[in-house]
Amino acid sequence: MDEGKEVSERSRLLPTEQLQEDLLNILDGYLPADLRADKGKGKRILSLGCGMAIEAEPLIHLMPEAYYEGIDESEVGLGGARALSPSLPAERFRVADATQSESFGLEPWNLIIIRNPDVDVLHRRSGSNWEQIFRNCYQHLSGEGYLLVTTHKGAEMRVVREYIETHLKGFKVTVPQQKIQDLMRSGFPMSETDLIMYQKKSEAVSQQ
């Protein structure tokens, strides 16, 4: 590779590196201690709608003994996820439909991440696919497992919170709603603007 092309490639990759560093700092401050104990040994992480899975390498850096898997409806982003996460086997990123319970597998997850749920659909009518996805998350989380949700807009997060806190009473907030940009050190913009984390409680979930 000639020098000019190499510089161009490094410039193209630099924002991704900055973003991953920012996510590492954010996750370092917000991941619960019980998840990170023993370097995450025995813990299982599932990212729904993972796309390029920009969070995968930071998570594995913080929890090197954890098992991470990312699923998405499209293969397009998954190719990028495999390239950005060289420490993970390629098969950890797979095409799957999160509305289907079987896509979550048989073993429970300790942390499920939902990237940018389709809250417009969720808001307009009941019985949407995302209602089923959230119920699947509850069903497939381990006892006292965690659900991390990110959205593109604060207004979208309000809809998500209203749905979870009205219909999925089996969750409690452990990390209040935060503006992601306020937490980033480099100032590099993310498509997501808000995050919130819930923890599963022991009581049964409402299926309304």
Explain how this protein is built.
The protein is an alpha/beta fold and 208 residues long. It has one domain (3-200): 3-Layer(aba) Sandwich (Rossmann fold), CATH 3.40.50.150. It is built from eight helices and seven strands, in the order ααβαβαββααβαβαβ. The chain has a seven-stranded mixed sheet. Strand 2 (67-72), helix 4 (75-84) and strand 3 form a beta-alpha-beta unit. It is globular. It starts with a helix and ends in an 8-residue tail after the last strand.
Cα distance spanning the termini: 58 Å
Structural class: alpha/beta
Quote the beta fraction. Answer: 15-25%
The CATH top-level class label: Alpha Beta
Beta strand count: 7
What profile does the largest beta sheet have? 7 strands, mixed
- Count of individual helical segments: 8
Mean pLDDT: 82
The helix/strand series, from N terminus to C terminus, equals HHEHEHEEHHEHEHE
What is the general shape?
Answer: globular
- CATH-derived topology: Rossmann fold
What is the H level of CATH, i.e. the homologous superfamily?
Answer: Vaccinia Virus protein VP39
